[in-house]
């Protein structure tokens, strides 16, 4: 379990590099760091449990049980806090994404990240393609279209024009 959690934490940190422009709050990596710390603690606790079982130590097994109960209470608390604050996190991420979309000009690093995100997630905009109609890039281009990264991958010669939403 500790190795699995270590992998998940490392994967999240590695994946974060692709989306760091959207997650300007550096505390976004905190869950991944916590997961890695939990993995280290789980490894140590598992080692204590194995040693206590091997030596048939009542004190060691009692300590192991107490530690497992504390971890269980912490997991339930984390689940409840995640459930309670899910809307706040959702609104914060959407607000940050909107600000990055507002900086889109087709050339800067934020634009590259937006294009990458839309291509990888097969999406367009924060909620849908109509989000682009309020951006500065959309108003400055004057061609009534969204970036080509909004185009479906199976459509050839997509221009991103809003009069052909079936291609987006």
UniProtKB/TrEMBL annotation:
Q: Could you confirm whether the keyword Zinc-finger appears in this record?
A: no
Compartments reported by the entry: Membrane
The main place the protein resides is membrane
Q: Which InterPro entries match?
A: Tetraspanin/Peripherin (IPR018499), Tetraspanin_EC2_sf (IPR008952)
Kindly list any coiled-coil regions of this protein. Answer: none
The record's SUPFAM superfamilies line, in alphabetical order, gives: Tetraspanin (SSF48652)
Q: Which residues cross the membrane?
A: 28-54, 61-85
Q: Name one GO cellular component term.
A: plasma membrane
Q: Which domain of life is it from?
A: Eukaryota
Tell me, what's a Pfam family for it?
Tetraspanin
Is the keyword Transmembrane helix in the record? yes
The record describes its membrane topology as: Multi-pass membrane protein
* Keywords carried by this UniProt record: Membrane, Transmembrane, Transmembrane helix
Q: Please state what the protein is called.
A: TSN36 protein
- Origin species, per record, is Rissa tridactyla (Black-legged kittiwake)
């Amino acid at each position: 379990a500790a190795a699995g959690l270590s992998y998940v934490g490392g994967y999240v940190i590695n994946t974060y590099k692709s989306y760091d422009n959207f997650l300007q709050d550096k505390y976004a990596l905190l869950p991944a760091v916590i997961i890695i710390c939990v993995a280290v603690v789980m490894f140590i606790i598992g080692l204590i449990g194995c040693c206590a079982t091997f030596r048939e130590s009542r004190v060691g097994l009692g300590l192991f049980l107490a530690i497992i109960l504390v971890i269980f209470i912490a997991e339930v608390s984390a689940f409840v806090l995640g459930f309670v604050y899910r809307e706040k996190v959702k609104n914060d991420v959407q607000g940050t994404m909107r600000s990055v979309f507002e900086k889109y000009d087709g050339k800067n690093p934020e634009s590259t990240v937006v294009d990458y995100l839309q291509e990888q997630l097969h999406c367009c905009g924060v909620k849908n393609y109509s989000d682009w109609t309020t951006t500065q890039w959309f108003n400055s281009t004057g061609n009534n279209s969204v970036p080509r990264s909004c185009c479906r991958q199976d459509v050839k010669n997509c221009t991103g024009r809003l009069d052909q939403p079936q291609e987006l």
